[in-house]
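User: Please predict structures.

Assistant: First:
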Amino acid sequence: MIHEAMAWGIPVVALLGVKYGRYHNLAAVFKGAVLESELENLEDTIECAFSNMDRMNQCAVKYGEDVLKSSDKIAKIICIRAKQN
């Protein structure tokens, strides 16, 4: 759901330790648009997100277009590679 949020330009707070670590380090991938938090720090992280909502929203919007175009780009790369074989 993080990619869907980025596509809409919505900032995200990702809870660590769920989905078998699937969402770990996304704050580094989507700098400024995603905050990560352990359960015990969740309230502080959400407060930080609300305090920085305007900046986080700008960052999320920046990544949105790239996320929307990514599946087409991946499909094109696979298609080109498949034709080489």
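Second:
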Amino acid sequence: MELSEERKLACKKAEVNAKKVLKQGDRVRCAKCPGTKRVFTFSHWDGCWMVSKSGINDYHPVNVDMVNGVTVDFRHDR
């Protein structure tokens, strides 16, 4: 499925904003397919993907709604 230009822009903005905020050890809550929420410990970046402490790199910042217990939305300017 092709992403719309609007969705691509939101994804890029979320990536840029998240890279300003996230640091190693942060606890991040992120939605994954099929919409379930997962909490993981942030380790580092692999391109636009966040990598967990356990090495899973299937988390995108556009789907993050909480960092260290604080509600966030990286799709909007910070």
